[in-house]
Amino acid sequence: MLGKITCRLEKPATLKNKSDWDHFTWNFANLAEQQREDTLRIRHEGRSIRNETGIQARWDNYRNNNRIRDRITEIDNWRVALEQTVCTIDLEIRKQDAAKEAVEQSVETKVIDLDIVNEIMSIREQRRGNDYVMDEAQQELIKESCIIKETRNALEKKGQESWHQIARLQEVRQLILRDLNEKVISVDIDRYLLGLTETSSEIAFRPDPLRIPKGMMTPQAWEEQSRYNKLRADCELANSMKLREAMLLTIDQTLNELKAQREVTDFHLRKRFHEYHKTTADLCHQKDKILKEMCKVETEIRDMEDALLDKSNKLKLAETRLEHRTYRFGVELTRDDAQYGLTQEVLQLRAAQKVLQNKIDENKKSLNMLLGFLQNMEGEMENKNEAKVIEQQALDVRGRVAASQDTPLTKTDRNIALSATVPVPEDRRRQTGETGRPKCHH
Question: Which residue stretches belong to region Disordered (predicted)?
Fold first, then answer.
C-alpha cells in the first residue's frame, strides 16, 4: 500500500523587493497625476475647440447667409435689368411689326398703282391709226411703271429685313426669358436656403455634397453670359430702331418719288387729252370749211355746166348758120365777112367749150379730192374722238390712283382697293380715323 504524498504550491512569479514596490507606487501616483493633468488639458482644449468651432460655425453661417443675400441681390439686379430689356424688346417688336405692316400695306398700294398704270397703258393701246404713237404720256407711264416696280422691290426687301429682324428679336427674347427663368429659380432656391435653420425639418445629411456638378460656371462666366445677353439685346434693339427708321424713310421716299412722277404723268395725260380735244376742234373747223368749199365748188360746177350748155346752143346756132350758107348757088356762094365772122364765132365757141369742159373736169377732180380728203378727215376725226374717249377713260382710271395713295385699313376698304373696282371714299377714312400709315401701339 502506497503512502500519502504531501506537496506545497508556489507562485511562478518572482517576488519583488520593497524598494521596487515603493518605486512602483510612487511612479503610479505620478502617472495618475500626469493622466489627470493630461485629461484636464484635453478637456480645456476640447472646450476651446468647441467654442472656436461654434463661433466659427456661427460666423460661417452668418457670412454664407450674407453671401446668399448678396447673390440674391446680384441676381435680382440682373433680373430687373433683363425684365426691362424684355419689355423694351416687346415694345420694339410691336413697333417693328407695325412698321412691317406699314411696308406691306405700302407694297399692296404699289401693286394697286401698278395695276392701274398697266390698265391705263392697256386702254391707251386701243388707239388706232396715226394716234397710236409713243407720246410723252406713254413714256411717263412706262417710267412710272418702272419706278413703282423699283419701289415695290425696295419695300419688299425692307419687309424681308424687318421679318428677319423680328425673328432675331424673338430669338433674343427667348434667350433672355430662359435666363430670367433660370435666375428666378436660382433666387427661389437661395431664398429657400436662406430660410433654413438648424432646427428645420428639411435638413439632412446628403451624399457627396462637395461634388461639382457638370457644367457649373464660374461667377465671371455667369456674369459674362448675362452681360452678353444684355449686350446682344441692346445691339438688336439698336439695329431694329435703325431698320424701322430706314423703313419709314423708304416709305416716305417712295411716296415722294411716286407723287412727283404721278404729277408729271397726270400733267402729260391731261396735256394729251387737251391736245386731242384741240385737234378734234381744229378738224371740225376744217371739216366745216371743206364742206363750205365743196358747196362753192359744186355751185361753180353747175354754173360752168350752165355756161357750157349756153355755149353749146350758141355753137349750134353758129354752125347751123354756116351750114345753111353753104346752100347758096353760083356767085352768091362767097366767103364774105359774115362767113368769116361765123367761122370765127364757131372756133371761139368750141375753144370756150373746151376751156369750160377742162375747168369743169378740174373742178370735179378737185371736188373728188375734197370728198376723199373729207372722208379721210372724218375717219381721222373718228379716231381722234375715239382717242379722246380713251384718254378720258385713262383719266377716269387715273383717278383711282389718288384713292390708293392711302392704303385702307378696314378689310372691306382693303378688298375694294385690291379689286380696283371702286375708289375708297376719303370721307370714310376721316370718319374711321384711318390713315395710310398704321399707328404704332406703344
Answer: 401-442
CB 186 within 8 A of CB 75: yes
- Give pLDDT, residue 6: 59
The C-alpha atoms of residue 42 and residue 44 are separated, in whole angstroms, by 5
**Phi, psi angle pair for 205, to nearest 5°:** -75, 140
Identify whether 218 is part of a domain.
Answer: no
The parent domain of residue 129 ranges over: 40-197+223-327+334-418
Cell of 312: 353749146
d(CA 165, CA 58): 54
d(CA 98, CA 91): 11
143 found inside a domain: yes
- Amino acid type, 107: V
The alpha-helical segments, DSSP class H, found in 326-336 are: none
- Count of the separate structural domains present in the chain: 1
Indicate which CATH number applies to the domain containing 51: 1.20.250
Residues 6+ apart with CB under 8 A from 30: none
Q: Is residue 389 part of a domain?
A: yes
Domain assignment of residue 166, yes or no = yes
What is the model's pTM? Answer: 0.66
Mean pLDDT of 384-408: 73
- The set of residues, in sequence order, having a beta carbon less than 8 Å from that of 301 and lying 6+ positions away, is 360, 363, 364, 367
Query: What residues contact 99, with CB distance under 8 A and at least 6 apart?
Result: 162, 243, 244, 247, 248, 440
Q: How many CB atoms lie within 10 A of CB 255?
A: 19
Distance (Å, rounded) from C-alpha 13 to C-alpha 18? Answer: 15
Give the model's confidence band at 243: pLDDT under 50 very low, under 70 low, under 90 confident, else very high: very high
C-alpha cell at 119: 390698265
- 397, 404 contact by CB (below 8 A): no
CA distance linking residue 196 with residue 184, whole number of Å: 19
**CA–CA gap between residue 375 and residue 367 (Å, rounded):** 12
The whole-angstrom separation of Cα 390 and Cα 127 is 7
Q: What is the pLDDT of residues 270-304, one digit of tens each?
A: 888 888 888 888 888 888 988 898 899 899 889 98
| C-alpha–C-alpha distance, residues 156 and 162, integer Å | 10
DSSP assignment of 44-111 equals HHHHHHHHHHHHHHHHHHHHHHHHHHHHHHHHHHHHHHHHHHHHHHHHHHHHHHHHHHHHHHHHHHHH
1-22 tens-digit pLDDT: 445 555 555 556 667 687 878 8
Lowest mean pLDDT among 51-55, 127-131, 343-347, 421-425: 421-425
